[in-house]
Amino acid sequence: MTLTVKQINRFCLLACAPFIGLAIWLMAANLSITLPESAFPQLALTQANVPADAAKLTAGLDRAKQTATVTAKSLKKSIALYTATNKSMRAIATIAAAQSDRPYLIYDRRITRKIGAPAKQINSDKVRAQLFAIHAQHFNGYALKVKLKSEGAMKMVLGQDKYGGAETTLAAAQRYHAIAGVNAGGFADDGGKRYPLSTTMMNGSYLNGFDPSFKDLFFVGLSDDMKLIGGKYASKAQLDSEQPRFGASFVPVLLQNGNPQPIPAKWQTSPLRAPRTVIANYKDDQLLFLVIDGRNENGSSGATLAEVQLLLERYGAIDGYNLDGGGSSSLVFDGRVVNHPSDGRLRPVPTHFLFFK
Questions:
Q1: All residues at 6 or more sequence positions from 43 whose CB lies less than 8 Å from its CB, including other chains
Q2: What is the pLDDT of residue 43?
Q3: Contact 337, 346 (CB under 8 A)
Q4: Cα angle vertex 321, ends 317, 324, to 5°?
Q5: Which pLDDT tens digit goes with each residue over 98-130?
Q6: Which residues, listed in sequence order, are joined to residue 190 by a DSSP beta bridge?
Q7: How far is the C-alpha of 227 from the C-alpha of 57, rounded, in Å?
Q8: Alpha-carbon torsion (144, 310, 140, 169), positive or negative
Q9: 352 and 329 in contact (C-beta within 8 Å)?
Q10: What is the pLDDT of residues 243-270, one digit of tens each?
């Protein structure tokens, strides 16, 4: 039997009619279907664990809070202990510093008392310079005690800053803005110029080469570590071993290691008395300069070298060296000439020791 298309469509419509009607009824009725929790066992398990996990979390937070509180209290105690310890350490350091300076202060008081009371003093981070008046039986003069506290507190300069040049110590001090100055080594005149005697050093270099010590000449100056060095040197290596920074030469050595040295016969009487300039040191490396006044250089006024030796011993010096004297003796302090030059005015000389604050 042959079916037409129209017949087939009619058959399909009749077959689907019940299902279409059921779907329309369900939508119109707005029915909802609720499944039991047992239908989702994993979800039920998770929801059951939420209260327990929350309790654990709350307990953990409480413990963390307690731990943080304890830690904060411990930190506060540690900070308080650190602060107290730091204060104690500072106090101990202050006491230790004071105690470490005490031997120096005692020694300084002792040597200062031997010279007298300072007439004037200049004190800075770099240097302390104390000026004293000297009144002896046969002469008057001045003492300059210097404590070098840092590098650059003392230097030696050339007259007019050139080899063969000369100027007064006052002019050199004013030009360099120094607080004090003393004439240094001996010199020789030649062709209208003044040249330093023998070995002379500036800024760690030899000005005109090294001369081995001969006759009664010595070299005296400052080392790189700001200590006085001096004496007779047979070789350049011998002097270099003491790391000299600057220095000059003259005659004679007066004191070494606290012991008076023999004064050459020539210098005992030629002249007998005269203005003098002397450089010395103490065992704590302070420097001492003596500048003795005299009316002239004919031997009738001023001090003998033996008297200067006695003065150095009395003041407690360790090493002492005679610098150029007579009309060359010069002491400048705080912008003025302190001593009384025997020429009636300062003599231009080729080397000067200057001090800076």
A1: 37
A2: 44
A3: yes
A4: 135
A5: 566 788 899 999 999 999 999 999 999 999 999
A6: 193
A7: 75
A8: negative
A9: no
A10: 999 999 999 999 999 999 999 999 999 8
Does 214 score more than 50 pLDDT? yes
Rounded mean pLDDT of the chain? 86
170: Cβ contacts below 8 Å, ≥ 6 apart: 181, 330, 332, 336, 337, 346
Q: Can you spell out the DSSP letters for 244-264?
A: EEEEEEES-EEEETTEEPPPP
Q: Would you tell me how many other CB atoms lie within 10 Å of the CB of residue 133?
A: 15
Q: Indicate the pLDDT class of residue 56, thresholds 50, 70 and 90.
A: confident
Q: Which residue has the tokens 């006085």?
A: 228
Q: What one-character-per-residue DSSP string does 258-309 give? A: TEEPPPPHHHHHTTSSB-EEEEEE-TTS-EEEEEE--S-SSSSSSB-HHHHH
Phi first, then psi: give them for residue 49, nearest 5 degrees. Answer: -80, -20
3-state secondary structure of 5: helix
- Do residues 195 and 164 lie in contact, with contact meaning Cβ atoms separated by under 8 Å? yes
Helices (H), 30-124: 41-115
Which sign does the torsion angle of CA 223, 225, 228, 232 carry?
A: negative
